[in-house]
């Protein structure tokens, strides 16, 4: 399929005009945009519909750590120009606790791989630009209200009223609260795990304070430090699951970070204006299977993973690439084997990422109360940290899983 397919005719549907396309994609996050770009490059006609405005999706700050597989997929498919120019390689993390600090140079451990730090909103902006350049059609301000997986049809609402769109295939890339996963039949398994932990996710207009991603383990709760760009740093603070982000003033945030990051021992943080504070509940969700009839779920629509191991956007990119290849096989060569196996191929990788993210949650968090059970948990956590500090095998395990999918 070297040339974009001709758009099929437009016919009248029950709710007015029904537009037809080859692959209809719901959601313009990393999943939908990588998929759309790869399909457009392969000559497959696509249409992306997105509820938010272009400005909203291009300013939504979330992920920042792209694993080597994501960076390779983006670079190989001509989607990595911004990432290669403005992103930077990162291969060092540090753990701080009551017994001091140790660093893991994960670029030299495991498979010797690194992350590329590039803010998700910048990646999304690049992907939108490139998708349009490749001739893809992207409609913002379109809210999908109903989904039929059997006919790959959606109903939507936009500023002009309502309408209907149909594809040969439908890709559900509309995140964890979108409509496509709800359209999966009752028979699918919907795994759900609330890890009972919440983070206050903070963005500060300040350069990073340390060279490494830093995980601070403290009896008051976890605190994390991650670079995003030369001007912006992300911090995390473990908070009570029913906490209110607005109750955290700038001063309170910096004071908690100082305590938990032990700045009196390790040096001060570079402060700046706090531009975002939001509560993130650490939860896992996996839909099994992630395909039904002519619909395929990708990214957060298929599985939600806690940000503790920075895997969500990486899973989205990995699944989008697999699905793009499978769709091209089916459309080009009438070979449906990879498409039929899409769910079976993705789910083991999703579960391995979930398993590592859970391992990270248990390493970083513990009970803050003073009970015998809490003391026991704290002692186990310290033992695991000691092992990570001292055991080369443990460090290699960490490095391999930290960057890999
Ligand atoms: C604080 C935080 C930090 C994170 N850090 C990392 C990290 O470092 N590394 C990493 O890999 N991951 C990280 N993640 C996870 C990552 O951001 C997500 O996994 C990623 O955004 C998933 O991409 P997606 O395209 O599947 O979904 P989304 O990015 O959620 O995109 C879905 C799109 O669908 C649209 N949509 C929803 N409903 C509808 C509808 N009814 N009709 C039309 N459109 C709709 C939405 O508006 C949205 O634009 C982090 C997440 C958070 C919250």
TrEMBL record:
Origin: domain of life: Bacteria
Limits of the FAD-binding domain: 21-356
UniProt entry tagged with the keyword Flavoprotein: yes
Pfam families: FAD_binding_3
Key words, A-Z: FAD, Flavoprotein
InterPro entries linked: FAD-bd, FAD/NAD-bd_sf, RIFMO-like
Family annotation (NCBIfam families): PRK08243.1
Protein name, entry field: 4-hydroxybenzoate 3-monooxygenase
């Amino acid at each position: 399929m070297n040339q974009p397919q001709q758009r099929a005719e437009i016919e009248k549907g029950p709710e007015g005009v029904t537009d037809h396309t080859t692959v209809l994609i719901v959601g313009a996050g990393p999943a939908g945009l990588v998929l759309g770009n790869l399909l457009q490059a392969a000559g497959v006609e696509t249409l992306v519909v997105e509820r938010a405005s272009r400005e909203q999706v291009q300013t939504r700050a979330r992920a920042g750590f792209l694993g080597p597989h994501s960076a390779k997929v983006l670079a190989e498919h001509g989607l990595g120009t911004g990432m290669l120019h403005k992103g930077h390689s990162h291969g060092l993390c540090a753990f701080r606790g009551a017994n001091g600090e140790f660093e893991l140079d994960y670029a030299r451990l495991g498979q010797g791989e690194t992350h590329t730090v590039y803010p998700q909103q910048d990646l999304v902006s690049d992907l939108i630009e490139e998708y349009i350049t490749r001739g893809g059609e992207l409609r913002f301000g379109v809210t999908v209200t109903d989904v039929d997986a059997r006919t790959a049809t959606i109903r939507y609402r936009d500023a002009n009223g309502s309408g209907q769109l149909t594809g040969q295939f439908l890709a559900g890339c509309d995140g964890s609260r979108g409509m496509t996963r709800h359209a999966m039949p009752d028979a699918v398994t919907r795994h759900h795990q609330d890890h009972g932990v919440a983070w206050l996710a903070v963005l500060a207009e300040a350069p990073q304070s340390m060279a490494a991603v830093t995980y601070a383990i403290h009896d008051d709760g976890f605190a994390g430090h991650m670079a995003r760009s030369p001007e912006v740093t992300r911090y995390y603070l473990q908070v009570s699951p029913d906490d209110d982000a607005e109750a955290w003033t700038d001063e309170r945030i910096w004071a908690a970070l100082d305590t938990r990051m032990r700045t009196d021992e390790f040096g001060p943080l570079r402060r700046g204006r706090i531009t975002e504070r939001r509560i993130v509940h650490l939860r896992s969700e996996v839909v099994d299977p992630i395909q039904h009839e002519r619909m395929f779920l990708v990214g957060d629509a298929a599985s939600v993973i806690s940000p503790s191991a920075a895997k969500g956007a990486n899973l989205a990119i990995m699944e989008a690439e697999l699905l793009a290849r499978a769709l091209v096989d089916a459309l080009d060569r009438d070979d449906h084997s990879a498409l039929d196996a899409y769910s079976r191929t993705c789910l083991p990788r999703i579960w391995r990422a979930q398993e590592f993210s859970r391992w990270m949650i248990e390493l970083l968090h513990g009970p803050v109360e003073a009970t015998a059970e809490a003391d026991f948990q704290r002692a186990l956590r310290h033992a695991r940290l000691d092992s990570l500090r001292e055991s080369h095998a443990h460090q290699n395990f960490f490095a391999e899983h930290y960057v890999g999918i």
